[in-house]
Amino acid sequence: MNKIESDAYYNEVLAIVSDYKKLVKNPRQKIKGLTRQAVTLTVIALAFLVIFLALYLQNRSNSLYLIVVAIFAIAFVLGIIYNVLIRRRISKLKNRGSFRKLVIEDDYVELTVGNEKSRLEMSEIQYVLINKYSISFIPNKVNLTLISIGISYREDVLNNFSHKELIIDNSSLYQ
Q1: Computed over its alpha carbons, how large is the radius of gyration of the chain?
Q2: pLDDT for the residue numbered 94
Q3: Which residues contact 69 (CB under 8 A, 6 or more apart)?
Q4: What share of the chain has pLDDT > 70, as a percent?
Q5: Tell me, what's the pLDDT at 21?
Q6: Which of 13, 30, 52, 66 could form a disulfide with 148 if both were Cys (CB 3.0 to 4.6 A apart)?
Q7: Which of 149, 147, 158, 157 is nearest to 120 (CA)?
Q8: Residue 17: closest CA among 134, 146, 166, 165
Q9: C-alpha span between 19 and 80 (Å, rounded)
Q10: Which of 136, 174, 172, 138 shows the shortest CA–CA distance to 154?
Q11: Residue 37: enclosing H or E segment and its boundaries?
Q12: Which of 161, 166, 169, 152 is nearest to 8 (CA)?
């Protein structure tokens, strides 16, 4: 399949990679995109920046407010940088659009993207998470490769993946 996935797909996959440890403990949860998390933190930093700047302007003799303003200004700038880095990463991933092939066998799952192959043995798969935009094969060890594919592979996974007990369908959480 030669399909370049949407920004939402890559955003969701980055959030899955970022929240790997939480997902291993509790796989039945709604994935919030990494961009949404970054925007939320940036808006919170901006709100506190405005509040403490107003407090400082009312009482300029209290330098503690100025220190707090500086901290939230730094947090706001870092939030903007984090947003830019996430968007840049998504753009790079989208530009890698090349041949993709998913192979599901009784003893392994393998994803080929261009010349790169990622493979997980069945014994290494803890969960298969079906989310809104992606399907992810979550490994049982942190050092193993997490395989994610677009939701368009849903029927292939449901029909060909023999270990149905590992499949966790979170798609109903998004309705």
Answers
A1: 21
A2: 76
A3: 49, 52, 53, 56
A4: 96
A5: 87
A6: 13
A7: 147
A8: 146
A9: 21
A10: 136
A11: helix 34-58
A12: 152
Residue with the two structure tokens 């790997």 = 20
Other Cβ atoms closer than 10 A to 8 = 15
The residue behind tokens 């989310």 is 131
pTM above 0.90, yes or no: no
Q: How confident is the model at residue 1 (pLDDT cuts 50, 70, 90)?
A: very low
**Predicted pLDDT of residue 39:** 94
- The label of the residue with tokens 């808006």 reads 43
Q: Give CA–CA dist 144/120, Å, rounded.
A: 8
**pLDDT for residue 6:** 82
Cα–Cα distance between 175 and 154 in angstroms, integer? Answer: 17
User: Which of 10, 19, 28 shows the shortest CA–CA distance to 171?
Assistant: 28
User: Which tokens go with 91?
Assistant: 């753009």
Torsion angles phi and psi, residue 80, rounded to 5 = -65, -45
DSSP class per residue in 85-125: HHHHHHHHHHHT---EEEEE-SSEEEEEETTEEEEEEGGGE
